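Q: What would this chain look like folded?
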Amino acid sequence: MEANEISFENLPKAVAHLVSEIAKIKFLVERKEAVKIPQKRIPIDIVEACRIIGKAKPTVYTLVRKRLIPCYKNGKKLYFFEDELLDWISQGRKKTMQEIEAEAKLDFGKNFKKIGANLNKN
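A: My prediction, written as structure tokens:
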């Protein structure tokens, strides 16, 4: 609707048109996802790495020497990234007894069916 078409007689049409335009804009704004700005990965030193994983320096040096922990070396200095250390920690998660029992029951059920099928064939 053009601005010059608005008069007292067609005011209800103009308001209806504006309401529909606002609804379209609202839909577009709500649908748009938040812009994700990638964070810079800043390397940390061994002191900070020790603090994050809760280990002493000699222990971290041993883990590095055995190549058990993610690290980077530039010259004689070791560098770590916090997100990699946290991923490394989460990979060492121990299963609960309930998880172990559920897996055992599931495996037992599968193996039991295989054994029963092999016995029926013979």
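The two ends are 83 Å apart (CA to CA).
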